[in-house]
Amino acid sequence: MNLAKKATIIASICALILTLIKFGVGLASGSVAVLSSAIDSMMDFAISAFNFLTLKKSSQSPNSKYNFGFSKIEALMGLLEGVFIVCIGIFIFYESIYKIYHKEEIINLSLSIYVMLISLIITFLLIFFLTLVAKKTKSLVIESDCLHYKSDFLTNLSTLIALFLIYFTNFYIIDSIFGIIISLYTIFSAFKIIKKALAFLMDVALEDEKIQAIYKLIEDNKSIISFHDFKTRKTPDINYLSVHLVFCPIISLLEAHKISDTFEECIRKIFTNEKWDIQIHLDPYDDQEAERKRK
User: Fold this and answer.
1) Please, what are the domains in the chain?
2) What's the pTM?
3) How many separate helices (H) and strands (E) can be counted in the chain?
4) Looking at residues 185-192, what average pLDDT do you find?
5) How far apart (Å, rounded) are the C-alpha atoms in residues 141 and 148?
6) Phi then psi for 180, rounded to 5 degrees?
7) 32-58 vs 3-29: helix crossing angle, rounded to 10
8) How far, in Å, CA of 254 to CA of 259, rounded?
9) Which residues make beta-bridge pairs with 232?
10) Does pLDDT of 268 surpass 80?
11) Which residues neighbour 183 within 8 Å (Cβ) at sequence distance 6 or greater?
12) CA torsion angle for 84, 99, 22, 87 (degrees, to 10)?
């Protein structure tokens, strides 16, 4: 197992441990701020787990049963996890409103503060470790993992500040207010995950700037007369492209094949950090009308 995969496993374990500790203390103390932070850690665990799956699945080749590989499993898991996180966020929102209405206090404020201090230390050490791994492996997945743990560090710090304010002022409503803010942030973040997962599952096309760059490559090649049936889709780790390129009828198959290979290489050079599955059909004339009738 390479260093990048090990890093995602370590990040997942740390996030899971923090999630369980925060949930336990949050439920025991009645602090919705700590519970909200537990939800944030759960999201971190989900993201790190998805990143591990991305690295693992990207190394596996398609087989005779699954010709296009297994990348959509990530999108499906992301959708299910996003829905689950939305439900938890709604629960935290409800608990915050309930505490305001019934004027409930935090049972063990000191324990909540200690837990958030421990969370800050663990998160800081994890960020330091992931930064070193990202520099060594040059992995974009690890870099993104490190980035969201930096935001988690700030969230934990904000929760700790809220708990300190309660400790010195005894204004327990601060806990509920902070719980509401974090629950709304959590729900919003989960919806972004759901939206992204649905886009992958629905075979969303590539970004406009990528499509325009590919169009320009085709237009700049004078040997290509025209093109049609241009289709793209994307998964978390692979971009898919299929296109029919029209050549002069008298061009040799060998020459047309060389041109299409050059075209494919140019795409990969422009987007060097991305994986591509490119299918090019060579046409001696524009047959899109005939194909449309057959469909």
Assistant:
1) 3-201 (1.20.1510.10), 208-294 (3.30.70.1350)
2) 0.67
3) 9, 3
4) 79
5) 11
6) -65, -45
7) 160
8) 9
9) 241
10) yes
11) 32, 36, 39, 89, 90, 92, 93, 96
12) 0
